[in-house]
Description:
Rossmann fold; three-stranded parallel sheet; globular
Amino acid sequence: MVDDADFMRMRLSRLLGENGYEILEAENGSVAVRKYQEFKPDVVLMDITMPIMDGLTAVKEIKKLDPTARIIMCTALGQQTMVIEAIKAGARDFVVKPFQPEKVLNAVKKVLG
């Protein structure tokens, strides 16, 4: 889970952890890329707007490292252009904030396939 907001990471970590998923957290795209290299997670939930390295740049960097990476973008309403760019860069799905738990879980199950 990659998000610059602590509360968002805690909320998603709790939701996914309660549903049997093991969670790694990163507070920006730069940390996410480093953690991806080290741990090779099965799926990445990536916020778009973050300091240091935004989610779109992080998607591109992760896909360079691993073209098969499974990334789900987390977006606020009004960020449709960024979501389209992220999908073109290799993200597999997206969920809209504020999150509906079942939509997050369904997106994760879908990309894990």
